[in-house]
Structure formats: C-alpha cells, structure tokens
Amino acid sequence: MAHEVKGVIASAKGAPVSVTTVVVPDPGPGEALVAIQACGVCHTDLHYREGGIGDDFPYLLGHEAAGVVEAVGPDVTGLSAGDFVILNWRAVCGQCRACLRGRPWYCFNTHNAIQKMTLADGTPLSPALGIGAFAEKTLVAAGQCTKVNPAIKPEVAGLLGCGVMAGLGAALNTAGVTRGDSVAVIGCGGVGDAAVLGASLAGARKIIAVDVDDRKLGWARQFGATDTVNSASADPVEAIRGLTDGNGADVVIEAVGRPETYRQAFYARDLAGTVVLVGVPTPQMQLELPLLDVFGRGGTLKSSWYGDCLPTRDFPMLVDLHLQGRLPLEKFVSETIALDDIEEAFAKMQRGEVLRSVVVL
Ligand SMILES: NC(=O)c1ccc[n+]([C@@H]2O[C@H](COP(=O)([O-])OP(=O)(O)OC[C@H]3O[C@@H](n4cnc5c(N)ncnc54)[C@H](O)[C@@H]3O)[C@@H](O)[C@H]2O)c1
Ligand SMILES: [Zn+2]
User: Fold this and answer.
1) What atom of ligand 1 comes closest to residue 281's alpha carbon?
2) Contact 66, 118 (CB under 8 A)
3) Which of 87, 149, 169, 351 has its CA 20 to 30 A from that of 247?
4) Helices 214-222 and 190-202, packing angle to 10 deg
5) Any idea what the Cα angle at residue 9 is, between residues 3 and 14, rounded to 5°?
6) Average pLDDT over residues 8-14
7) For all residues of the chain together, what is the average pLDDT?
C-alpha cells in the first residue's frame, strides 16, 4: 500500500520550496518506512534547492532526522516497527575495498538511496542525501536507520544525522583533536559550532571561533570557544597567530566552504598542523596556493565527509553523552517549526538568525 503524505519539494533550481503530496510506497526487501518526528534544516538543503549539488530536480528535501520505524521490508533483520532511529546517509556496504580494509567511514557504496517516492502524478523524486525527511514518512534503506536510546528528544537526536555529526566528527575523528591542542574553527554555524564542541570534548586548551557575525561568535562561546575573532573587521590569520604565540593553531577547521576561508585556514595553521575542510564548495570554486607553501608548511590537509563517522558506532555513544548532560545538543535548536516554514527557515539561516531550525512533525 502506498502512503500519501505531506513533503517539502524543491522543484527547480533557485525556486522557493513548496509543501505538496508525496507518495511513499511500502518497504521492499532491505528497506524501511519511517514516520519522521523531527528534521533539522541544514545548509546542504539550501545547496540542493540552489542547484549546487545536482540537477536531479524535483528533490524531496530534509536529511537530518529522527523518527520511528513504521514497517520494514521482508528480509530486514535487526530493525523492527516501533524502533526509534536517527537516519544516516552512510549505510556502509561491508564489501567495498574501504570496508574490507577496516575503514568503513570511506565506504564507496553508500549511495543506496531508495528512489521510489514520487509526486502524486508519478514524477520520481530525488531524496536529499538519499533520505528526504521533510515529510511525514519516508522510505530509506534499512541500514540508514540507526537505533538509539528513545529517551532523547527527537528534535535534538535528528541533528546527529548530519550537521552536528559532521562538525563533531571533523574535530574528533578527522582532525583527531586531542588534549592540549589549539584549534581554530572558521564559520560558526551549526556545523562549525559542533566542531567547537567536539574540540572542547576532546580537551583542546584553546578554541578560537571565527565568523563574520558577532551573534554566531556569542553562540560559539556557549559551545566552548575560548576566544573569538570577527573576520569582517580583523585579519583572522593574524588574529589566530596572535592568540597562539605567533605560531598558528594545531588544527584549523573550515566550516564555510569557500576558497578565501580555506586559504585563511591554510595560513592560520601552525607548521605541520592540520587543516580540515568540512564546508561544501560549489563546482565553480577554484583554489590557488603557492605550491612551495603547500610543501614548506608541511602537515596535513584533509576533507571531512560526515565527520568520518560510523553511525552504528557514533550515534548511540553521542546520544548517551547527551543523556548524561555532557553534550548539550539542545543548544543547537534555535527554533522548532512546521513543514510550511522551511522557506522562511532558509532566509533566517542566510540572515544568520538561527543555528538550527528544526521541523517537528
Ligand atoms: N562535510 C560534511 O559532511 C558536511 C555536512 C553538513 C554540512 N556541511 C557544510 O558545512 C557548511 C556549514 O553548514 P552550516 O549548516 O553550519 O551552515 P550555516 O549557514 O549555518 O553556517 C555558516 C557560517 O559561516 C559563516 N560565514 C560565512 N561567510 C564567512 C566568512 N567569509 N568567514 C567566516 N565565516 C563566514 C556564517 O556567518 C555562518 O555562521 C556548509 O557548506 C554545509 O553544506 C558539510
Ligand atoms: Zn546536512
């Protein structure tokens, strides 16, 4: 039986999103039908609607979600109706060369998106990041459902499904921040602030938050930033060096996704330090750096996809930390909204008024 539910669609590049009827089939083999309880509005959803990620319109947006499994397909094991889950966009295959080498966070076969949801007229929908959770129900691969302790509120749990995991993991997994490190984070939206929180959790001794918006810098302090730099009025490279005895930070995390902020990260890092790129650039962006500086400054230049997380390992652990009061995920939730409010939430995100707007269903 197919389910007719309300969902949020981006129908064409740059066009405002709309709430419309989405047809969601019952789960087939390897699939799960999930009743969405909450879904955060991530900058990546806006990238989709602006055509920055692909041209497979119409998209069913939303990918930072938690909900309850309503039904599973015939051969699904380890997951059943009633389970509380966070949806992930990394259901690892266990068979590709990355998985077989014991590095499943680089799994090459995670594009297991179920492309079976349609508009009422049968037009196929592309679910954002293979999830499509700005909808009352969605159909995903069973492996995209990670069971966690249902004591956590859905509106905070869902955040671990994308942006907060990406930021926490950039610091904890990709950069491997450790006790005593100095860390700078450029761009303090939801993702950057999660990187600040991750650095704090790991025991960094100095955490420098950089943004062009003072409100964002104020919030970054609540997540553990020890110093802040408004890069609209001060040179962030000079400022970060000044705050680190003239050396630069051990780790600089770029959470904007632009060439100029990447260059700042590159030069604000100590010799042999680490740069982690979490921000997602557009296809047009180019980076030019003196190759001699790349050589001469040494160290490590990395990208972080989804915080190099392993959902089955990381989500339940982070939920436990939250329930113990050690991971204040609730501070990311600026407001809870309805499906009809997503276009306005994008505008608020662009005006810098929110860290996360979370749709609650
Ligand atoms: N790598 C991943 O797996 C992953 C996952 C989720 C999101 N992302 C990406 O991370 C980025 C941040 O996402 P978000 O949800 O936090 O977005 P956001 O819009 O909430 O935050 C971006 C922040 O950057 C700041 N900023 C903009 N221009 C700046 C500049 N020149 N210098 C300093 N700060 C500047 C903004 O004021 C804002 O605070 C996006 O590109 C998003 O697509 C990556
Ligand atoms: Zn996202």
Assistant:
1) 41
2) no
3) 169
4) 30
5) 170
6) 97
7) 96
As a dihedral over the C-alpha atoms of residue 85, residue 87, residue 90, residue 93, rounded to 10 degrees, the angle is: 50
- For residues 18 and 129, is the Cβ–Cβ distance under 8 A? no
Q: Which two tokens stand for residue 150?
A: 């249902």
Supply angle C-alpha 232, 235, 236, rounded to 5. 90
Rounded-to-integer distance, Cα 359 and Cα 45, Å: 13
Angle at Cα 250 formed by Cα 314 and Cα 203, nearest 5°?
A: 50
Residues whose beta carbon lies within 6 Å of some atom of ligand 1: 42-44, 47, 162-163, 166, 186-192, 210-213, 216, 231, 255-257, 261, 278-280, 304-306, 349, 352
The single-letter code of the amino acid at 251 is V
Q: Which pLDDT score, from 0 to 100, does residue 201 have? A: 97
Q: What CA–CA distance (Å, rounded) separates 152 from 204?
A: 27
Please state the atom number of ligand 1 nearest to the C-alpha of residue 280. Answer: 41
pLDDT at 114 over 60: yes
pTM, 2 dp: 0.94
191 alpha carbon to ligand 2 midpoint, in Å?
9
Residue 18 above 90 pLDDT? yes
Rounded to whole angstroms, the Cα distance separating 25 from 33 reads: 8
Euclidean distance between CA atoms 216 and 349, whole angstroms = 11
Q: What pLDDT, on a 0 to 100 scale, did the predictor assign at position 111? A: 56
Closest CA to 63 of 140, 118, 116: 140
pLDDT(168) > 60: yes
